[in-house]
Specification:
Rossmann fold; about 45% helix; globular
Length: about 280
């Protein structure tokens, strides 16, 4: 396939370049090469490249930063995907867009299906949902993949933060009442390659299997790294009062990969197995 990848310098983007380059013609661009919030620039670029697939891994992902930079968040997370969808529509391309568990409010208490009602509680979640809706409105040839708690070998993520803090401190305080699913970039890429070009358009959840709290995740990281650092649990309310955290997080955002299993017959690794493999290669 001829693929235009946006967000190529991000955590997921760098790994996508490595994974897709051997088998596909890939144009890996970041904001330096194309500002996706500029429709004219997007149309010129897409018209020139004529990709089979536009893969959008670009986003403003600073959850708390979105609260204070709302206009920027809407431009990048909503207007940008809309522009790319228009470009795809104009040239006959497909579009694959990465979204998030933050489109849900986290009150369901059981894993979210792709068919469940969304109800984002943060600016980040609202802007990402707006991006999803814009794509659906513009073009039927779309794949939207929602993921969560993503980590890889590039960029910033929770695993790297925990390892850095463990090198600096004897004790780390981590929230224990937010539950989700840590997801390695490799597993998300497996989901991406399973759906792209398939013609099975629609919305997919794409996380590793299983669930844990951030506290559980931190303890697992320390155990896999063989570090003695003590991990102490703290509630979201106490953490917010102590450290400040403007954006509301969903307390339970476990995603059920229903469509991935039943539409593409793909099951991703459980989060513990993925973490073990990641730590061995770090």
């Amino acid at each position: 396939m001829n693929i235009l990848l946006l967000g190529a310098k991000g955590q997921l983007g760098v790994d996508l370049v490595s994974a897709l380059s051997p088998e596909h013609t890939l144009t890996p661009w970041d904001v330096d090469e194309l500002d996706i919030t500029d429709l004219s620039a997007v149309l010129r670029a897409v018209g020139s490249l004529k990709p089979d697939l536009i893969l959008n891994a670009a986003a403003y992902t600073a959850v708390d930063g979105c609260e204070t930079h709302e206009a920027l968040a809407y431009r990048v997370n909503a207007l940008g995907p809309r522009n790319l969808a228009i470009g795809a529509l104009e040239t006959g391309a497909e579009i694959l867009h990465i979204s998030t568990d933050f489109v849900f409010d986290g009150e369901k208490g059981t894993p979210y299906l792709e068919f469940d009602e969304t109800n984002p509680q943060s600016v980040y979640g609202k802007t990402k949902l707006a991006g999803e809706r814009a794509i659906r409105e513009v073009i039927p040839r779309h794949y939207i993949l929602r993921t969560a708690w993503l980590y890889g070998h590039n960029g910033h993520n929770f695993v790297k933060t925990m390892l850095r803090l463990a090198a600096e401190r004897d004790e780390i305080t981590v929230v224990d009442d937010q539950v989700g699913t840590p997801t390695a970039t490799r597993d998300l890429i497996d989901a991406i390659t399973a759906v792209m070009g398939s013609g099975a358009y629609g919305t997919y959840h794409a996380t590793c299997e299983g669930a844990c709290s951030w506290y559980d995740f931190a303890r697992a990281i320390m155990a896999e790294a063989g570090l003695p650092t003590k991990v102490t649990p703290i509630s979201t309310a106490d953490y917010k009062e102590k450290y400040g955290q403007p954006a509301k997080r969903p307390p339970y955002s476990v995603l059920d990969n229903f469509m991935l299993r039943h539409q593409r017959h793909v099951t991703l690794r459980d989060w513990e197995t993925a973490l073990q493999a990641y730590m061995k290669n770090s």
